[in-house]
Amino acid sequence: MRKIIIDTDPGIDDALAILLALSAKEELDVLALTTVNGNVDVEKVTKNAFKILDVAGRADIPVYKGNGKPLVRENSMPADCHGDDGLGNIGMTDSDRMPEEESAADFLIRKVREEKGEITLVPIGPLTNIAEAVQKDPEFVSNVKEVIIMGGAVYGGNVTPHAEFNFWVDPEAAKIVFQAGFNNLVMIGLDATKYVWLDPVLRELLYQIHTPASRFIHKVTRVYADAHWGYGQKLGCELCDALVTAYLLDENVLDTIDAFVEVETQGLCDGASVVYPVTKFTDKGINCKVAVSADTKKFFEIFFGYLFPEYLEIVRTIQG
Predict the structure, then answer these.
(1) Own/partner pairs, 134-140, CB within 8 angstroms, 24+ separation
(2) 129-170 pLDDT, tens digit each
């Protein structure tokens, strides 16, 4: 069983990624959620983390609140596609639970030291907490088993022509993480996540399944789908962060390349992930694997197969 800590800024697609991870009880041991400023402010995302755990019935999982702003700048642009509250404005009641007293970065440092070489970090928001841990503890990098990131892009951003949202919010943090020397680093960016599109048919299926989890997903993705229509008249929505969880469950869902990645921190390309495929740039060392595409059918078989397994054959029929 893979031990994971999800570092997150929920966020609608974060919620789906977390629910998928929690449904894989035989494969993934979710040790904790750590929160970070991103889609909405850190106070809201921390409340949202508890709401998601309540939907999953997992009050046993602790939540550690992390950074409320980037490491060295004031970048802040709440992702309006997630609603004012980050979870689609569906009016969920706040949980009575409170985050642990220990900060997210201190918890990460302590936990990976206690279980050296056993824990996978899953950052699906800005990389501020991970970078802070790198800066505070010289042994942190070697204590971590692997880091699977949602962020970045090879060919184009979603905030600027070059920068993806998570890296744009805190590019200095992203730069630190990619320079840190983690043994196994995977970047799952926009080039791959564009393949995991929840279309109107599959979204309607979620409504018809009529369980608390399926109706929650259907409700929170309403504002997300509306935003995608507003951006480019596309029907459906992109489930970016959920692809990271799918990769943890089946690495064959992605095509990856070995690469050297740098993150730009100034100028027109501020926040951009500069990807050097090592097959072409032979003078560069490998510091990560970069996802370049995803298998759409396999993703949704994983997504529905774990969350709603009794409907898997219907999904296969829909997808053809």
Answers:
(1) 134/176, 134/177, 134/180, 135/176, 136/105, 136/106, 136/109, 137/109, 137/113, 139/113, 140/108, 140/109, 140/112, 140/113
(2) 999 999 999 999 999 999 999 999 999 999 999 999 999 999
